[in-house]
Design brief:
317 residues; alpha/beta; 11 helices; 8 strands; 13% strand
């Protein structure tokens, strides 16, 4: 079995341990402003605050909302939107504070805040009941949405979701303490590349766009706001857990995870097998299914897009 062990910082897709290695490829590249992010699809902007940037493709009997994980953006669904939108309307969003969406210190960036923002967009676009697909932190937001606004959801499909692994008080305090704004801001390119690779079972050269995006956006005007959002999001994930509230969810839930996810469970605090984390927790759900994708890590929708899309479409049918 391939060794995918990494510390909790690795769950933050754009962070990593600062390296003293040289040979950077993007050190002299110009800044990439968040407003310039190219996801490969047209991007719209909601009207109400927090203003949410979103991709809107396809049509069909159901609407799928794709919600990214910690420190990422709607572009992390670029390998899935085209296939899923062949049969359904697909909306991939930038959460507030991320990507091309509005950023502001006045936002709490709590789990209920994010869930309310998604609910507000569903209402503004008059989508009715949607199928919520959330990756990692987006999964925990989805669980929160299902508890607070179940009337807008048809079902949950969660990709390598956070929110199922319990953390004790001391463990949670430690996790929050190691994620700092300065740490987000000072990560260099080699640290970014190493960390991104740890989210995959097999890192590929064609994923270098992720490194370039993160390295160049560190020079952006809004990067300090992004770093603040990341740290607040980590605090929210720890302080507003969902694992002990799963019995409040009556919707169908499908969990899709990589066989070799090196981030869930936390390998230092809770060494173990990813599948066991979900299997232990879902006993509190009345209607669930777990799908394991072989030879895949945490970023399953990018590493194994065909298998992931097939699992989503199967859940819908």
């Amino acid at each position: 079995m391939k060794n995918l062990i990494s510390i909790f910082l690795s769950v933050i897709l754009f962070m990593g341990v600062t390296s003293c290695m040289s040979g950077y490829r993007y050190a002299d590249s110009p800044a990439m402003e968040f407003s310039d992010f190219n996801y490969g699809f047209p991007v719209k902007l909601s009207k109400a605050e927090p203003r949410i940037a979103y991709i809107d493709e396809g049509s069909g009997s159901k609407t799928i909302i794709l919600v990214h994980g910690l420190a990422s953006n709607a572009g992390f669904w670029r390998y899935n939107i085209a296939e899923l939108s062949k049969e359904y309307r697909v909306i991939a969003i930038d959460l507030p504070g991320y990507g091309r969406s509005q950023k502001a210190d006045k936002f709490s960036y709590s789990m209920p805040f994010f869930a309310d923002a998604v609910n507000q967009l569903i209402t503004e676009l008059k989508l009715g009941k949607v199928v919520y697909v959330g990756h990692s932190m987006g999964g925990q937001i989805g669980l929160t949405l299902a508890m607070n606004h179940p009337e807008v959801l048809d079902q949950l499909i969660l990709a390598a979701p956070a929110g199922f692994e319990p953390f004790a008080r001391g463990e949670g305090d430690w996790l929050k303490s190691v994620i700092t704004i300065e740490g987000v801001k000072t990560t260099n390119e080699e640290g970014i590349r190493r960390n991104l690779a740890s989210n995959f079972y097999n890192w590929r050269d064609d994923l270098e766009w992720m490194v370039e995006e993160r390295a160049r956006m560190a020079k952006a005007v809004e990067f300090d706001d992004f770093a603040y959002t990341v740290t607040r999001s980590v605090t929210a994930m720890v302080d507003q857990p969902t694992v002990k509230k799963l019995d409040k969810i009556s919707l169908p839930v499908t969990i899709i995870h990589g066989e070799f996810d090196g981030l869930i469970p936390n390998p230092y605090l809770h060494p173990g097998v990813t599948h066991d984390v979900y299997l232990k927790a879902v006993g509190h759900l009345p209607n669930y299914k777990i799908v394991t994708i072989p030879d895949a890590g945490h970023m399953i929708q990018i590493e194994k897009p065909a298998e992931f899309d097939a699992a989503v479409l199967n859940a819908l049918k």
